[in-house]
Amino acid sequence: MCPRTRGMPPAAASFERSEKPVNRRRKIYVFLNGDFNPPAGFPASPERDSLVVATDGGIRHVLALGWKPDVVLGDFDSAPPELAAELERAGTARVLRYPEKKDKTDYELALETALGELEPEGTIEVLGAFGGRLDMTLANLLLPGAESLLRAGRDLSPTFLYRDGETRVYVITGPKRLELPPDLPPDSLASLVPLSAEVTGATLGGNFLYPLREGTLLFGNTLGVSNAVPSNPVGASAKTGPLSVSIGKGTLAVFLAPNPDPDGENDGENGGKSP
Q1: Which CATH number is associated with domain 173-275?
Q2: What was the pLDDT predicted at 148?
Q3: For residue 53, is it left (φ>0), alpha (ψ between -120 and 50) or beta?
Q4: Residue range 24-165 in CATH 3.40.50.10240
Q5: Considering all CA atoms of the chain, what is the largest pairwise distance in Å, rounded to the nearest integer?
Q6: pLDDT for 16 beyond 80
Q7: Which among 108, 133, 2 is positioned nearest to 55, based on CA atoms?
Protein backbone atom coordinates (compact mmCIF):
# COMPACT_ATOMS: atom_id res chain seq x y z
CA MET A 1 0.00 0.00 0.00
CA CYS A 2 1.41 3.37 -0.99
CA PRO A 3 1.92 6.38 1.30
CA ARG A 4 -1.13 8.55 1.67
CA THR A 5 -1.66 12.24 1.10
CA ARG A 6 -3.43 13.76 4.06
CA GLY A 7 -6.43 16.00 3.70
CA MET A 8 -7.75 14.57 0.45
CA PRO A 9 -11.42 15.28 -0.20
CA PRO A 10 -13.61 12.61 1.45
CA ALA A 11 -15.06 11.61 -1.92
CA ALA A 12 -11.62 10.50 -3.07
CA ALA A 13 -11.41 7.85 -0.37
CA SER A 14 -14.96 6.62 -0.14
CA PHE A 15 -17.54 4.82 -2.23
CA GLU A 16 -21.23 5.28 -2.77
CA ARG A 17 -23.17 2.99 -0.48
CA SER A 18 -26.14 1.14 -1.87
CA GLU A 19 -29.60 2.23 -0.78
CA LYS A 20 -30.77 -1.39 -0.95
CA PRO A 21 -31.56 -3.20 2.32
CA VAL A 22 -28.39 -4.65 3.86
CA ASN A 23 -28.10 -8.41 4.29
CA ARG A 24 -26.57 -8.57 7.77
CA ARG A 25 -23.94 -11.27 8.32
CA ARG A 26 -23.11 -13.14 11.51
CA LYS A 27 -19.50 -13.55 10.41
CA ILE A 28 -17.28 -11.61 8.05
CA TYR A 29 -13.82 -12.74 6.93
CA VAL A 30 -11.29 -10.04 6.06
CA PHE A 31 -8.10 -11.14 4.28
CA LEU A 32 -5.09 -8.79 4.36
CA ASN A 33 -1.80 -8.96 2.47
CA GLY A 34 0.40 -10.13 5.37
CA ASP A 35 1.56 -13.64 6.22
CA PHE A 36 -1.21 -16.23 6.35
CA ASN A 37 -0.76 -19.59 8.03
CA PRO A 38 -4.13 -21.39 8.04
CA PRO A 39 -4.83 -22.76 11.51
CA ALA A 40 -5.61 -26.43 12.01
CA GLY A 41 -9.23 -27.17 11.24
CA PHE A 42 -9.72 -24.01 9.20
CA PRO A 43 -12.96 -24.45 7.21
CA ALA A 44 -12.72 -25.72 3.65
CA SER A 45 -15.32 -23.14 2.67
CA PRO A 46 -16.86 -20.09 4.36
CA GLU A 47 -20.11 -20.42 6.27
CA ARG A 48 -23.18 -20.05 4.09
CA ASP A 49 -24.30 -16.70 5.52
CA SER A 50 -20.80 -15.19 5.91
CA LEU A 51 -19.11 -12.49 3.81
CA VAL A 52 -15.56 -12.75 2.43
CA VAL A 53 -13.69 -9.46 1.98
CA ALA A 54 -10.22 -9.31 0.42
CA THR A 55 -8.01 -6.23 0.55
CA ASP A 56 -5.76 -5.85 -2.46
CA GLY A 57 -3.03 -8.55 -2.24
CA GLY A 58 -5.09 -10.44 0.35
CA ILE A 59 -6.98 -11.91 -2.59
CA ARG A 60 -4.11 -14.40 -3.02
CA HIS A 61 -4.93 -15.99 0.35
CA VAL A 62 -8.59 -16.31 -0.56
CA LEU A 63 -7.78 -18.00 -3.88
CA ALA A 64 -5.17 -20.27 -2.25
CA LEU A 65 -7.92 -21.63 0.01
CA GLY A 66 -10.16 -22.27 -2.97
CA TRP A 67 -12.64 -19.66 -1.69
CA LYS A 68 -14.38 -16.96 -3.71
CA PRO A 69 -14.38 -13.35 -2.50
CA ASP A 70 -17.60 -11.39 -2.16
CA VAL A 71 -15.85 -8.01 -1.94
CA VAL A 72 -12.40 -6.99 -3.20
CA LEU A 73 -11.14 -3.52 -2.39
CA GLY A 74 -8.05 -1.35 -2.27
CA ASP A 75 -5.71 0.63 -4.47
CA PHE A 76 -4.55 -2.62 -6.13
CA ASP A 77 -0.86 -1.87 -5.82
CA SER A 78 -0.09 -5.40 -4.58
CA ALA A 79 -2.56 -7.52 -6.56
CA PRO A 80 -2.42 -8.26 -10.30
CA PRO A 81 -4.52 -5.49 -11.92
CA GLU A 82 -6.04 -7.91 -14.37
CA LEU A 83 -7.48 -9.92 -11.48
CA ALA A 84 -9.75 -7.08 -10.34
CA ALA A 85 -10.82 -6.49 -13.93
CA GLU A 86 -11.60 -10.19 -14.34
CA LEU A 87 -13.76 -10.19 -11.19
CA GLU A 88 -15.61 -7.12 -12.44
CA ARG A 89 -16.31 -8.72 -15.79
CA ALA A 90 -17.50 -11.94 -14.18
CA GLY A 91 -19.74 -10.04 -11.74
CA THR A 92 -18.87 -12.53 -8.97
CA ALA A 93 -17.58 -9.94 -6.51
CA ARG A 94 -18.01 -6.28 -5.68
CA VAL A 95 -14.82 -4.46 -6.64
CA LEU A 96 -14.22 -1.19 -4.78
CA ARG A 97 -11.33 0.84 -6.15
CA TYR A 98 -9.49 3.54 -4.20
CA PRO A 99 -6.65 5.89 -5.16
CA GLU A 100 -3.11 4.98 -4.14
CA LYS A 101 -2.76 8.24 -2.17
CA LYS A 102 -5.40 8.25 0.55
CA ASP A 103 -5.88 8.87 4.27
CA LYS A 104 -6.81 5.32 5.23
CA THR A 105 -5.24 1.90 4.88
CA ASP A 106 -7.00 -0.75 2.83
CA TYR A 107 -7.77 -2.58 6.09
CA GLU A 108 -9.56 0.44 7.57
CA LEU A 109 -11.65 0.71 4.40
CA ALA A 110 -12.41 -3.02 4.68
CA LEU A 111 -13.57 -2.64 8.30
CA GLU A 112 -15.86 0.22 7.34
CA THR A 113 -17.41 -2.06 4.74
CA ALA A 114 -17.63 -5.01 7.16
CA LEU A 115 -19.25 -3.01 9.98
CA GLY A 116 -21.86 -1.83 7.51
CA GLU A 117 -22.96 -5.42 6.93
CA LEU A 118 -22.36 -7.13 10.29
CA GLU A 119 -25.09 -8.43 12.59
CA PRO A 120 -25.14 -7.18 16.18
CA GLU A 121 -22.75 -9.31 18.29
CA GLY A 122 -21.22 -10.64 15.07
CA THR A 123 -17.57 -11.59 14.48
CA ILE A 124 -15.04 -10.13 12.05
CA GLU A 125 -12.27 -12.69 11.51
CA VAL A 126 -9.06 -11.16 10.18
CA LEU A 127 -6.46 -13.23 8.32
CA GLY A 128 -3.07 -12.10 7.01
CA ALA A 129 -2.75 -9.19 9.46
CA PHE A 130 0.73 -10.08 10.76
CA GLY A 131 4.23 -10.42 9.33
CA GLY A 132 6.18 -8.10 7.08
CA ARG A 133 6.17 -4.47 8.21
CA LEU A 134 5.99 -4.02 11.99
CA ASP A 135 4.24 -0.65 11.68
CA MET A 136 1.44 -2.23 9.66
CA THR A 137 1.10 -5.11 12.15
CA LEU A 138 0.73 -2.66 15.05
CA ALA A 139 -1.69 -0.48 13.10
CA ASN A 140 -3.79 -3.53 12.21
CA LEU A 141 -4.09 -4.57 15.86
CA LEU A 142 -4.91 -1.08 17.11
CA LEU A 143 -7.44 -0.27 14.41
CA PRO A 144 -10.57 -1.82 16.05
CA GLY A 145 -10.10 0.71 18.87
CA ALA A 146 -10.09 3.72 16.54
CA GLU A 147 -12.73 6.27 17.53
CA SER A 148 -14.32 6.37 14.07
CA LEU A 149 -14.76 2.58 14.02
CA LEU A 150 -16.00 2.52 17.62
CA ARG A 151 -18.72 4.95 16.58
CA ALA A 152 -19.58 2.84 13.53
CA GLY A 153 -19.83 -0.33 15.62
CA ARG A 154 -21.42 1.20 18.73
CA ASP A 155 -24.73 -0.65 18.31
CA LEU A 156 -23.11 -3.86 17.03
CA SER A 157 -20.71 -4.83 19.86
CA PRO A 158 -18.53 -6.75 17.39
CA THR A 159 -15.82 -9.25 18.23
CA PHE A 160 -12.64 -9.02 16.17
CA LEU A 161 -10.67 -12.25 15.84
CA TYR A 162 -7.17 -12.24 14.34
CA ARG A 163 -5.76 -15.65 13.46
CA ASP A 164 -2.26 -16.71 12.48
CA GLY A 165 -1.54 -20.41 12.75
CA GLU A 166 -2.57 -21.48 16.25
CA THR A 167 -2.38 -17.93 17.62
CA ARG A 168 -5.67 -16.13 18.18
CA VAL A 169 -6.10 -12.50 19.14
CA TYR A 170 -9.55 -11.28 20.16
CA VAL A 171 -10.23 -7.54 20.34
CA ILE A 172 -13.33 -6.41 22.24
CA THR A 173 -14.74 -3.10 23.46
CA GLY A 174 -16.73 -2.91 26.68
CA PRO A 175 -19.16 -3.57 28.02
CA LYS A 176 -18.54 -7.06 26.68
CA ARG A 177 -18.19 -10.66 27.82
CA LEU A 178 -16.11 -12.93 25.60
CA GLU A 179 -16.39 -16.68 26.05
CA LEU A 180 -13.19 -18.36 24.88
CA PRO A 181 -13.11 -21.55 22.80
CA PRO A 182 -13.12 -24.79 24.81
CA ASP A 183 -10.57 -26.47 22.52
CA LEU A 184 -7.49 -24.50 23.61
CA PRO A 185 -4.29 -26.58 23.77
CA PRO A 186 -3.27 -27.55 27.33
CA ASP A 187 -1.19 -24.91 29.12
CA SER A 188 -2.08 -22.25 26.56
CA LEU A 189 -0.72 -18.77 27.16
CA ALA A 190 -3.23 -15.97 27.62
CA SER A 191 -2.34 -12.28 27.70
CA LEU A 192 -4.59 -9.26 28.21
CA VAL A 193 -3.27 -6.12 26.52
CA PRO A 194 -5.26 -2.87 26.80
CA LEU A 195 -5.58 -0.93 23.55
CA SER A 196 -7.21 2.10 25.17
CA ALA A 197 -5.97 4.38 27.96
CA GLU A 198 -7.57 2.06 30.49
CA VAL A 199 -9.76 -1.02 30.58
CA THR A 200 -12.01 -1.27 33.62
CA GLY A 201 -13.97 -4.13 35.14
CA ALA A 202 -11.59 -6.75 33.72
CA THR A 203 -12.67 -10.14 35.03
CA LEU A 204 -11.46 -13.62 34.12
CA GLY A 205 -13.83 -16.55 34.37
CA GLY A 206 -12.77 -20.19 34.43
CA ASN A 207 -9.53 -21.96 35.19
CA PHE A 208 -6.88 -19.26 34.60
CA LEU A 209 -3.57 -19.60 36.43
CA TYR A 210 -3.81 -16.01 37.69
CA PRO A 211 -7.34 -14.83 38.61
CA LEU A 212 -8.53 -11.30 37.98
CA ARG A 213 -11.77 -9.73 39.16
CA GLU A 214 -12.98 -6.20 38.43
CA GLY A 215 -9.42 -5.15 37.67
CA THR A 216 -8.22 -2.04 35.84
CA LEU A 217 -5.62 -2.48 33.10
CA LEU A 218 -3.70 0.60 31.97
CA PHE A 219 -2.30 1.14 28.48
CA GLY A 220 1.38 0.15 28.43
CA ASN A 221 1.14 -1.76 31.72
CA THR A 222 2.09 -5.46 31.65
CA LEU A 223 -0.14 -6.68 34.48
CA GLY A 224 -2.16 -8.95 32.19
CA VAL A 225 0.72 -10.35 30.16
CA SER A 226 1.63 -14.07 30.19
CA ASN A 227 -1.23 -15.60 32.11
CA ALA A 228 -1.97 -19.25 31.37
CA VAL A 229 -4.72 -21.83 31.18
CA PRO A 230 -3.50 -24.93 33.07
CA SER A 231 -4.37 -28.39 31.83
CA ASN A 232 -7.87 -29.04 33.09
CA PRO A 233 -8.53 -32.24 35.03
CA VAL A 234 -11.77 -33.97 34.09
CA GLY A 235 -14.68 -32.00 35.46
CA ALA A 236 -12.70 -28.81 36.13
CA SER A 237 -14.73 -26.77 33.66
CA ALA A 238 -17.93 -27.78 35.44
CA LYS A 239 -16.50 -26.44 38.72
CA THR A 240 -14.97 -23.20 37.43
CA GLY A 241 -17.26 -22.46 34.50
CA PRO A 242 -16.21 -21.71 30.90
CA LEU A 243 -13.15 -19.62 30.15
CA SER A 244 -14.23 -16.03 29.66
CA VAL A 245 -13.01 -12.44 29.68
CA SER A 246 -15.35 -9.62 30.70
CA ILE A 247 -14.71 -5.87 30.63
CA GLY A 248 -16.76 -2.83 31.53
CA LYS A 249 -15.13 -0.03 29.55
CA GLY A 250 -12.23 0.31 27.14
CA THR A 251 -10.78 -1.80 24.33
CA LEU A 252 -8.85 -4.98 25.11
CA ALA A 253 -6.80 -7.46 23.09
CA VAL A 254 -6.84 -11.07 24.34
CA PHE A 255 -3.89 -13.08 23.00
CA LEU A 256 -4.13 -16.89 23.07
CA ALA A 257 -1.34 -19.16 21.88
CA PRO A 258 0.15 -22.59 22.60
CA ASN A 259 2.84 -22.43 25.25
CA PRO A 260 6.25 -22.98 23.60
CA ASP A 261 7.73 -23.86 27.01
CA PRO A 262 5.02 -25.66 29.01
CA ASP A 263 7.54 -26.67 31.69
CA GLY A 264 8.67 -23.07 32.24
CA GLU A 265 7.40 -20.85 35.02
CA ASN A 266 5.22 -17.77 34.94
CA ASP A 267 6.85 -15.79 37.71
CA GLY A 268 5.06 -12.46 37.41
CA GLU A 269 2.15 -11.25 39.50
CA ASN A 270 -1.18 -11.93 37.80
CA GLY A 271 0.61 -13.24 34.73
CA GLY A 272 3.12 -10.45 34.22
CA LYS A 273 6.20 -12.46 33.27
CA SER A 274 9.54 -11.07 34.34
CA PRO A 275 12.22 -10.68 31.63
Answers
A1: 3.40.50.10240
A2: 85
A3: beta
A4: yes
A5: 60
A6: no
A7: 108
